[in-house]
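Lecture notes, unit on protein representations.

Consider one protein chain, 116 amino acids long.
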Amino acid sequence: MKNEKLKAFFAKVKVFLTHTGKIAIIAGAMVFGFLAGDVYHRLQKNESEKPVVNLKNVHSLLETSVAINERNELMIINRRTGTYEIYQDSIGSVIFSLYAGKIYSSKTDVSITKGQ
């Protein structure tokens, strides 16, 4: 009698622990998935925090003046607001080189096509 009650009790405990173990595995998987997703989201957030370049606002020649000061720094002045930005002299040189290269290549392309 006691053995049967003890066996029945252990059978109920075994069933209970089996169900509890299954629930614990599912809950653990859910917690792990949430934590892994959170870590992934934080890593992606750090990578996507690069500054956004606003290319929608193009300044026209009517509202912009360009000058070079006594230290050969490039100055771009907004005529409407009076604000200005100063760039190091090497930036002005790079801009000049780019435009000079573009003009040179367009002139040499024209002379090559005329010569043929």
